[in-house]
What does this fold into?
Amino acid sequence: MTKGKDAKPHIGIFGRRNNGKSSIINALAGHDVAIVSEVAGTTTDPVKKSMEIPGIGPVVLIDTAGIDDTGDLGKKRIEKSKEVLKTVDAAMLVIADNIFGKEEKELIKEFTNYEIPFLVIHNKTDLEPLNNSTRLQILDHTQAVILAFCAIRPIEIETLVDNLRKIIPESAYMNRSLIGDLLKYGDTVLLITPIDIEAPEGRLILPQIQIIRDILDNDCVAIVAKEREIDAYINKMQPLPALAITDSQVFPKADASIPKNIPLTSFSIILARHKGDFSNYLKGTPSLSSLKDGDRILILESCTHHLTCDDIGRVKIPRWISNFSGKKLEYEVVAGLDKLPQDIRKYAMVIQCGGCMITRRQIINRLKPAVEAGIPVTNYGMAIAWVHGIYKRAIAPFTKVSAGSSYL
It folds into this structure.
């Protein structure tokens, strides 16, 4: 399950069957958006629900199956629910009837592992109030806020919303500028956007649109051109652009055409810094020069799209890396946020796409097993720049600006 185009806070709601998770979702939304039933296990697979929560704004709530589900099918549902942990910005752990046991303790460990802020909600307090013994038991395992809740009491809904607002991290709102720290008022930015077989019919790709909007939001000027027009146009530009941004596929052409005194980078590298694991990309990218015969490379393509005969992730990047290294390498591509086909330690390197369709938390969690295992990680754009010998130029705008900041 990916965030897709929902670049807004994602909140997961977890708990045992029939603890009233769907009732809490309906209470937050102010109307019925989730099925409520007395039958345990009504919610089976995780379900995303986009909504507006008064006092918070647009969010996506992810309703999950009960963590106490049974049988072989139940185990699969629990696994799917736990996969949601890689995608959420905040969570609610719902208990009821003063039951707090092994399942809840395991979830709290998972929240901690993925650094997910969360609330513990004792639901249905109109039927059975939260007792002090249960509260103390919960406090033995977490310092998270514990709320006694009843969906039919408006004051308790207000309290829940207020506490949710406090735990949702700022980064979940994706409101940080992509390149605003590289620009000043009135600067011109040149965007090099090839229109080839991979370009969507009649429109630009999402990273290009996002960066054009970011340029305008920073009161600057965006000039968009295909790579074939750059040579003629760059000589006429007055003033010269403060920054040139290229599609990674035409990096060598852009490097040759853009004068060295003009900073040059790519759409993918901008996304790598904005919401990727940029510091680990910087550490991992040079490992492209140390690959050996038989090494297996994992390519993480975090969206699904129409495949072409010259696909960037499945065809071009493997070809460029193999030509650069001169080694016999094996490549494996995983799309979306699907499970990895084998142990991460089987790979010599991991290459993550720009991640325009997902969030920073999703990317960080996706790469977490590789980073913890010491497997080098990099990004499409950074890998392409490295094998074409223009890596230092491509990352220079960010390593200069970001020194001593949270980017590195």
Summary: The CA atoms of residues 8 and 175 lie 10 Å apart. The chain has three domains: 10-173, 180-270, 277-387. The chain is about 35% helix and 20% strand.
